[in-house]
Structure formats: C-alpha cells, structure tokens
Amino acid sequence: MTTETTPAGYTYDNPDLPASPVGRERLNELLTDVMWTEDDAPALRRAGEILSPRVSDILDVWYDFIGSTPHLVSVFRGADGEPDAEYLDRVRGRFERWVIDVCTREFDDQWLAYQEEIGLRHHTTKKNQTDNVDSPASHVPMSDMMALVVPVTLSVRSFLEEGAQEGDDVDAMHQAWFKAVTVTLVLWSRPYAGDLW
Predict the structure, then answer these.
(1) Domain, as residue range, for 109
(2) Which of 66, 109, 117, 142 is the most buried (most CB within 10 A)?
(3) Is the predicted pLDDT of residue 161 greater than 70, yes or no?
(4) Stretch 142-160: mean pLDDT, rounded?
C-alpha cells in the first residue's frame, strides 16, 4: 500500500465526520494516564518514518496471528460462516493506514472523531456497515480488542530495530507507540462502556 492510496471506507479526512463525544480535556487526561511526555511525540513521528514503508509487512504479521486464531478471525465471517477474504482485505487497507495515522496525525478533534468512528465500527452500532458485509458477527468483542494491544505493541519492536539508524532510540519509539496505541484502544472502547467509560 502507498500512503497516497485511500483505502475503501477510510473517512479520516471527511469534514462531515461527526465530532467525538470525547473532548480535548479528557484526551489530555488519558495522555496523562499513559505517562505521555513531550518526548513521545517526536519519538512517535520517528517511529512512523520507520514503520510507514513497512506497513504491509507489519500487517502480514498481524494477519497471520489473527488468521490462525479462530476466535479472532471469527469476526470476519461472511454469511456462510467462513472468513470473508474480501472483507479481510478491505479492513487490512484501513488497518495499514491506521499504523501511519497513529504515528503521523496530530491528536486533535479530527483524530478524536475518527477514533470514535473506528470504535463504532467495532461495536454493534456500525459493525459490517462500512463494507456492506452480511456477517453473523455483530461486533468485535471488547475483551479481544483490548487484549490485542499486546501483539500490536510487541510485534512492532523488531521493525523499529531493523529500521533504526545511529542516534535513534528504539526504546523511546517503542514506548511512544505503546502509549499511543493504548490511548487509541481506550477511545475505541467508549461506545462499549457507555456512561461507565
């Protein structure tokens, strides 16, 4: 995938995207919760420079894991109960773009709005609608979504190590990635938790 290609269903830059119910003040609190510092933003940007050209390879690792884990791949079932390859492919394009966005986008109101949209697409509210899929899976279980922070974080380190140059701090990049992914997943959980979020 090239960064110029817009994946099917990718609506980050859509000006009509509804605003997130999560405001900047709450986002700042979440960033405090994950111990975000002023050093994390440049470390995350540098991570993006390394990871962006490798997003297809990263998704190969993640999709191998998801595809070999029955309860994870089950959310991609089609009407016949089998994993829908076309559905997986369309989601993959947006997943690749998400890697880039995590590293390169500002954590502003538009970013918050798109995290809300992604959360809704995992929830019963919008699951299957973006790709017009007739799937028996009505949602992505929040427990699985939250647990995936581990493979999504751990698997990236080797890519950072391979792409690092002299002067790069792999630990700092990896920690910034972990913090950003954690905040993202917490935001995606908002539709699931309701008033308890």
Answers:
(1) 24-196
(2) 66
(3) yes
(4) 98
